[in-house]
Design a protein that fits this description.
Length: about 325
């Protein structure tokens, strides 16, 4: 099979190769998937740069993808063969990710792809949507709540806005340009703040009649931690799923404690089995009850995986970056 892979850490141009390698062998409880699309996420380039150690002689990157189940291992229902599926976690502590013509994953990592969604859309459903759902609903229903989603044009935020509206919440988001405001508006945001032109704290307090929000979905914990006690209601929650740089502590502990504010950290790769089942069930319900908006910035051939990684790493895109896997 044709696959993109690296054998050492470094820049995309230095270490990524695209060559023929052996199709991985199925073992008990696994499925072999013929891939049609692969999602390229920030975690993929961070792994390539060395965020996690190599566990084999080479690594095929890509946690998310979509395709058709070609074969199943012992203990997996034969009826699964031929199913359209979307994948997640394919490269988390595993050698064969989705940047290839085939991959093997555990049975539970291959979720049914609704017939009304394309394979390209299916490749968008993994880590970004799961992260958005977990951030929003880990403490229960959000009906009637007001939620501030930081960076509303980001991939995770794009789905967090949609899921929050589906859950019955009012959504405030922040962006840095009119182009990004258009993307956030298309996702369904109620209020949009341009943080380069407006004071975010003042605007949120004005929008909420000085009450504040129930929850913050945070993409840059280190930069924004100093303001969250001003934005959140008493008893509010700030959920962090990413940071741009290591936070410059100390945290304003007294200000947070006075308002009984909770700080939460989310990484969907390592949530419990029960938590993962709740997330997957919720996403399935969302897909069945709504018509999601997918924002795909650019699609590359597998042979252009270097360009795909470089675009994601640059941050100069709005929406998903995908690989189209040719057969």
């Amino acid at each position: 099979m044709l696959a993109g892979f690296y054998s050492k850490f470094g820049s995309a141009r230095e270490v990524l190769q695209v060559e023929e390698i052996q199709i991985p062998q199925l073992t008990k409880g696994q499925v072999l998937v013929r891939l049609f699309n692969s999602g390229v996420n920030p975690s993929d380039y961070k792994m390539r740069l060395g965020s996690r150690p190599l566990t084999a002689t080479f690594q095929v990157p890509g946690s998310d993808g979509s395709g058709i189940i070609e074969a199943v291992g012992e203990g997996v229902l034969k009826e699964r063969i031929g199913q359209r599926v979307w994948l997640f976690n394919a490269a988390y502590h595993r050698q064969y990710g989705t940047s290839a013509q085939f991959t093997i994953v555990e049975d539970w990592m291959a979720q049914l792809l609704p017939e009304n969604l394309s394979y390209a859309q299916g490749a968008c459903l993994g880590i970004p949507v799961m992260t958005a759902y977990r951030c929003l609903f880990s403490d229960g229903p959000i009906q009637g709540k007001t939620i501030y989603i930081v960076g509303g044009a980001g991939v995770v935020a794009h789905y967090a806005i949609q899921l929050a509206k589906w859950g019955g919440a009012k959504v405030i988001t922040s962006v840095s340009s009119e182009e990004k405001a258009v993307a956030a508006r298309a996702a369904g945001a109620d209020e949009i703040i341009n943080y380069r032109q407006q004071n975010v704290v003042d605007q949120i307090l004005q929008i909420t009649n000085q009450v504040g929000v129930d929850r913050i979905i945070e993409v840059d914990f280190g930069t924004n931690i100093k303001n969250c006690h001003q934005i959140l209601k008493a008893g509010g929650v700030s959920v962090m799923y990413a940071f741009v740089s290591q936070p410059d502590l100390p945290i304003p502990i007294m200000n947070l404690m006075i308002k009984n504010i909770t700080l939460k950290f989310t990484l969907v790769y390592s949530i419990s089995d029960q938590e993962r089942e709740e997330v997957l069930l919720g996403i399935s319900q969302w897909l069945n009850q709504t018509k999601p908006v997918f924002n795909i910035a650019q699609q590359f051939a597998l042979t252009d995986i270097v360009l795909a990684h470089e675009l994601v790493e640059s941050g100069k895109k709005i929406g998903h970056v995908l690989l189209d896997i040719a057969h």
